[in-house]
């Protein structure tokens, strides 16, 4: 079976976003980042461990009626660095973006260090530098490597 054939398991969408080439096992984190838990009413299709010619296996997430903000793409890049974001309009891929990690993410993650200035009730937005294997708080230098999505501020 070819990649195209297997992808037909997850049907095409009319309008919305297809996040393709997500590392196998990360699809549910992608949904968490998008804040999608089903309560919003949008149609969501998730393919997990779908065979992929280039990746072996991959996950794929399709969300109808929803396009993504720059900020969401920034966090997404941390857990799905190889993802392709396709904006679909009237069944056609209208825009295709290869995700790229930003140098910094501001206001999206919380610092796990409770003594950090960003946790002191001051009006200070969190800021993390993106490093090779995670993110580092720009204020207290605490490094978060795993389960970055547990630290989402949203
Ligand atoms: N897709 C979809 N609904 C549509 C159009 C596309 O769900 N109406 C999905 C396809 O199934 C695919 C992704 O969006 O997973 C990208 O579509 P397309 O660019 O046509 O596929 P490829 O050329 O294989 O993409 P790439 O080159 O990025 O691998
Ligand atoms: Zn900190």
From TrEMBL:
Alphabetized NCBIfam families for the sequence: ATCase_reg
Gene: pyrI
Keyword rRNA-binding: no
Family label: Belongs to the PyrI family.
Binding partners and assembly: Contains catalytic and regulatory chains.
Domain Aspartate carbamoyltransferase regulatory subunit N-terminal: 8-99
Entry protein name: Aspartate carbamoyltransferase regulatory chain
Keywords for this protein: Metal-binding, Pyrimidine biosynthesis, Transferase, Zinc
PANTHER family to which the protein is assigned, alphabetical: ASPARTATE CARBAMOYLTRANSFERASE REGULATORY CHAIN
GO biological process annotation, one example: pyrimidine nucleotide biosynthetic process
Cofactor(s) needed: Zn(2+)
Cofactor binding remark: Binds 1 zinc ion per subunit.
Organism (species): Halarchaeum acidiphilum MH1-52-1
A Pfam entry, by short name: PyrI_C
SUPFAM superfamilies membership: Aspartate carbamoyltransferase, Regulatory-chain, C-terminal domain, Aspartate carbamoyltransferase, Regulatory-chain, N-terminal domain
Binding site for Zn(2+): 111, 116, 137, 140
Residue intervals of the Aspartate carbamoyltransferase regulatory subunit C-terminal domain: 104-147
Domain of life the protein comes from: Archaea
Described purpose of this protein according to its UniProt entry: Involved in allosteric regulation of aspartate carbamoyltransferase.
């Amino acid at each position: 079976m070819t990649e195209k054939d297997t992808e037909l398991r997850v049907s095409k969408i009319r309008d919305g976003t297809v996040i393709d080439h997500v590392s196998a096992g990360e699809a549910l984190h992608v949904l968490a980042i998008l804040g999608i838990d089903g309560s919003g009413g949008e149609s969501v299709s998730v393919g997990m461990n779908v065979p992929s010619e280039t990746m072996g296996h991959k996950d794929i997430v399709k969300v109808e009626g929803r396009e993504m903000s720059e900020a969401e793409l920034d966090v997404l890049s941390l857990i799905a660095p190889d993802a392709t974001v396709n904006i679909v309009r009237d069944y056609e891929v209208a825009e295709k973006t290869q995700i790229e990690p930003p140098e910094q993410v501001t206001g999206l993650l919380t610092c796990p260090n409770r003594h950090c200035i960003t946790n002191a009730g001051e009006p200070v937005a969190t800021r993390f530098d993106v490093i090779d294997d995670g993110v580092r708080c720009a204020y207290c230098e605490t490094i978060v490597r795993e389960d970055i999505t547990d630290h989402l501020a949203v």
